[in-house]
Design a protein that fits this description.
Elements (H helix, E strand, L loop, with lengths): L6 H25 L10 E5 L6 H10 L6 H11 L8 E5 L5 H10 L17
Antiparallel strand pairs: 1-2
Helix pairs in contact: 1-3, 2-3
């Protein structure tokens, strides 16, 4: 005669499976879900002092990239070094994920701008 699983054991198994499903969804949302699919890249301006989830979500929103605050928080927490994001303008190519963008922000791969000073030019 075999023992049938109790209701508490079934609840425990359902909770574990639900947690695993949630972890897989979060992994996809951060590392594999594209931020946008348009062929032209978008530019995100991350200003100094706004490396937290709210500031990063606002910077992404200003570039017409819609990401929930909870996903941004989860991505920053999974990196465990959200203080190391560097300010600057970053390019988000089509198909790039939030995790890849945060890696670029952490390494400081900003867009560089060139400035040409014409010889003999005077500013007043």
């Amino acid at each position: 005669m075999t023992a049938r699983p109790s209701g508490l054991l079934k609840l425990l198994i359902a909770t574990i499976l639900g947690g695993m499903l949630l972890a897989v969804w979060a992994w996809y949302a951060v590392w594999h879900r594209p931020l946008h699919d348009e062929p032209t890249p978008r530019r995100v301006l991350l200003e100094r002092g706004v490396a937290g989830p709210v500031g990063l979500q606002r910077a992404l929103g200003a570039a017409n990239i819609d990401v929930s605050r909870s996903i941004v928080w989860l991505a920053l927490r999974s990196r465990q070094d959200n203080a190391s994001l560097r300010a600057g303008t970053y390019e988000v190519p089509a198909g790039a994920s939030l995790g890849r963008l945060l890696e670029r922000m952490g390494r400081g791969e900003r867009l560089l701008a060139s400035v040409r000073v014409v010889e003999g030019l005077t500013f007043r």
